[in-house]
Design a protein that fits this description.
Layout (H helix, E strand, L loop, with lengths): L11 E3 L5 H11 L9 E5 H14 L3 E6 L6 H9 L3 E4 L2 H8 L8 E3 L6 H9 L4 E4 L2 H10 L4 E7 L17 H14 L2 E8 L10 H19 L6 E3 L14 H15 L7 E4 L3 H4 L3 E14 L15 E7 L8 H5 L7 E2 L9 E7 L8 E9 L6 E4 L20 E7 H13 L5 H4 L31
Parallel strand pairs: 1-17, 2-17, 3-4, 3-10, 4-5, 6-7, 7-8, 8-9, 9-10, 12-14
Antiparallel strand pairs: 2-11, 11-12, 11-16, 13-16, 14-15
Cofactor: pyridoxal 5'-phosphate
Pfam families: Orn_Arg_deC_N, Orn_DAP_Arg_deC
EC number: 4.1.1.17
C-alpha cells in the first residue's frame, strides 16, 4: 500500500464545521468584485474516502480497481492508492500515472482488449502482467510481446437494458471463448480469469442481468479449467453509480451481486474477485461553479386566446456560461448525463419563473447544456452550481475555441485525513458501520430553485455522500 503525507497531496484542510460547499461560497466571494469570474471546481477527497468505506461494507469480497479513465486527477489517484485500491489502466500513460506515485504492478490491470504492440511491451517492461483480451489477434500480439502476461478473457454478456452498451464493441461470445482458450493453450499464453463485458451500473434497470453475467463467467471459468488453466481471477467490471440520481441504486446492485458470487464463486473457491469502479468513487465528490457571461431575452408573441398569464409565456431566457460540452459538460455527449444547476442565489418565494435554456461559451450551436428548465431571471455575473460532476468530465474536457479548463480546488476534513492515515498504517481495524454512519439525503430538487419539465423530474435527486 502506498503511504503519503499531507505535503504530497494538493489539497486544503477544511476548518472544523466547514464543508466543500462552504469553499464554493468562499471562492465566489473572493472574485465578487472582479471581472475574472472563471468557472472552477471544488472536490472533496473525503467524499472519495466515504465511498471506499461504503464499498467495503457493501462488497466485502470484491477488491476495487479504480478505472483511471473516469477521472485521472492525481489527487484522486493518490487518495485511492493510499486506501489500497488497485487500478484499471487502459494505456501506457495511465500506467505511468499510477506507477509514478508508487503503485506496484500487481495492483494494476491493463484492461483494454485492443492494445498497441508498443504499449504491451511497455507493460511487460514495467512488470504489469494482468491484461484483458477478447480476440485471437490480441492473443497472438501478447504471445509475441509479453511472455509473462496473465490474461483475462473479456466475454460478451446481455447488456441490452443498459444505456452504455459495451458488448457492442468488446467481448467474446461463449462459443468463441472456448476457441480462444484452446488457441491460448496452443500459443502457451497463460489465462487466469474472466471479465464480463458489462458495466453493471451504466443505466441498467434489470438487476438479474448482473447475476446472468456472473453465471456466464462461471461457464467460461469451467472451460478454462478443463483445458488446464489455473483460473484464479474474476473481474466483474464497472459502471457502479456514483450518485443517487439513478433508477437502480448501488445497494440494490450489490444485493444481487453478492448472492451470485456466493453461488458461482464461493469464498472457499480461492478465486480473487475484483471490479473496475470509476464514477462510483468520484461523481459526487466534485461540484462545478460556472458564471453567466451572457444572456439573451427572446420575447414571445402573446396569443389572443391567452386570457390568463401563467407567468412563463411572455419571454424565454437564454443563459451563456463559461464552461460547456467541449469542456466539463462533455459528459452530456459521451456519458448520457442529464444535468441541472443549483442556483447560487436562492429565489424569493414570490419570484417569477421563466422558460430558460443554458449554453456553453463556444461558437458551436451544439454547445447546449440544458435544453429546457424553469428559473427566475438572472443577470450576467450570477453563478450556477452543478453537483455530481466528478465522472467523465475533467478527464475528457478540451480547450476547444481557446476556453481553458476550470481550476480544481481539492479539500478534505482533518478527521477524514486522520482516518486515511489510520487505514494506510493499520487497515480497517474498526467495523465499517462505525466509520461510515448512515446519512440521509440533505437536498431535493425543489431546494435548488429550479423548475423542470414534468418529463425530466426523475433526473435530479441529490445523493447520499456515504
Amino acid at each position: 500500500m502506498s503511504v503519503f503525507n499531507s505535503a504530497e497531496f494538493d489539497f486544503a484542510f477544511l476548518d472544523e464545521g466547514f464543508t466543500a460547499r462552504d469553499i464554493v461560497e468562499q471562492k465566489i466571494n473572493e472574485v465578487s468584485l472582479s471581472d475574472d469570474k472563471d468557472a472552477f471546481y471544488v472536490a472533496d477527497l473525503g467524499d472519495v474516502l466515504k465511498k471506499h468505506l461504503r464499498w467495503v461494507r457493501a462488497l466485502p469480497r470484491v477488491t476495487p480497481f479504480y478505472a483511471v479513465k473516469c477521472n485521472d486527477s492525481k489527487a484522486v489517484v493518490m487518495t485511492l492508492a493510499s486506501l489500497g485500491a488497485g487500478f484499471d489502466c487502459a494505456s501506457k500513460t495511465e500506467i505511468q500515472l499510477v506507477q509514478n506515485i508508487g503503485v506496484s504492478p500487481e495492483r494494476i490491470i491493463y484492461a483494454n482488449p485492443c492494445k498497441q504492440v508498443s504499449q504491451i511491451k511497455y507493460a511487460a517492461a514495467q512488470g504489469v502482467q494482468k491484461m484483458t483480451f477478447d480476440s485471437e489477434v490480441e492473443l497472438m500480439k501478447v504471445a509475441r510481446s509479453h511472455s509473462n502476461a496473465k490474461l483475462v478473457l473479456r466475454i460478451a454478456t446481455d447488456d441490452s437494458k443498459a444505456v452504455c452498451r459495451l458488448s457492442v464493441k468488446f467481448g467474446a461470445t461463449l462459443k468463441t471463448s472456448r476457441l480462444l482458450l484452446e488457441r491460448a493453450k496452443e500459443l502457451g499464453v497463460d489465462i487466469i480469469g474472466v471479465r464480463p463485458s458489462f458495466h453493471v451500473g451504466s443505466g441498467c434497470t434489470d438487476p438479474d442481468t448482473f447475476s446472468q453475467a456472473i453465471s456466464d463467467a462461471r461457464c467460461v471459468f469451467d472451460m478454462g479449467e478443463e483445458l488446464g488453466f489455473n483460473m484464479t481471477l474474476l473481474d466483474i467490471g464497472g459502471g457502479f453509480p456514483g450518485s443517487e440520481d439513478v433508477k437502480l441504486k448501488f445497494e440494490e446492485i450489490t444485493a444481487v451481486i453478492n448472492p451470485a458470487l456466493d453461488k458461482y464463486f464461493p469464498a472457499d473457491s480461492g478465486v480473487q474477485i475484483i471490479a473496475e469502479p470509476g464514477r462510483y468513487y468520484v461523481a459526487s465528490a466534485y461540484t462545478l461553479a460556472v458564471n453567466i457571461i451572457a444572456k439573451k431575452v427572446v420575447l414571445k408573441e402573446q396569443s389572443a386566446s391567452d386570457d390568463e398569464d401563467d407567468g412563463t409565456n411572455d419571454k424565454t431566457l437564454m443563459y451563456y456560461v463559461n464552461d460547456g460540452v467541449y469542456g466539463s459538460f462533455n459528459c452530456i455527449l459521451y456519458d448520457h448525463a442529464h444535468v441541472l444547476p443549483v442556483l447560487h442565489k436562492k429565489p424569493k418565494p414570490d419570484e417569477k419563473f421563466f422558460t430558460c435554456s443554458i449554453w456553453g461559451p463556444t461558437c458551436d450551436g451544439l454547445d447546449r447544456i440544458v435544453e429546457l428548465c424553469g428559473m427566475p431571471e438572472l443577470q450576467v455575473g450570477d453563478w450556477m452550481l452543478f453537483e455530481n460532476m466528478g465522472a467523465y468530465t475533467v478527464a475528457a474536457s478540451s480547450t476547444f475555441n481557446g476556453f481553458q479548463k476550470p481550476d480544481i480546488h481539492y479539500v478534505m476534513s482533518r478527521p477524514a485525513w486522520q482516518l486515511m492515515q489510520q487505514i494506510q498504517e493499520q487497515g480497517l481495524i474498526q467495523p465499517v458501520e462505525e466509520l461510515c454512519p448512515s446519512t440521509m439525503p440533505i437536498c431535493c430538487a425543489w431546494e435548488s430553485g429550479i423548475e423542470l419539465p414534468s418529463s425530466s423530474c426523475s433526473t435530479r435527486v441529490c445523493g447520499i455522500n456515504c
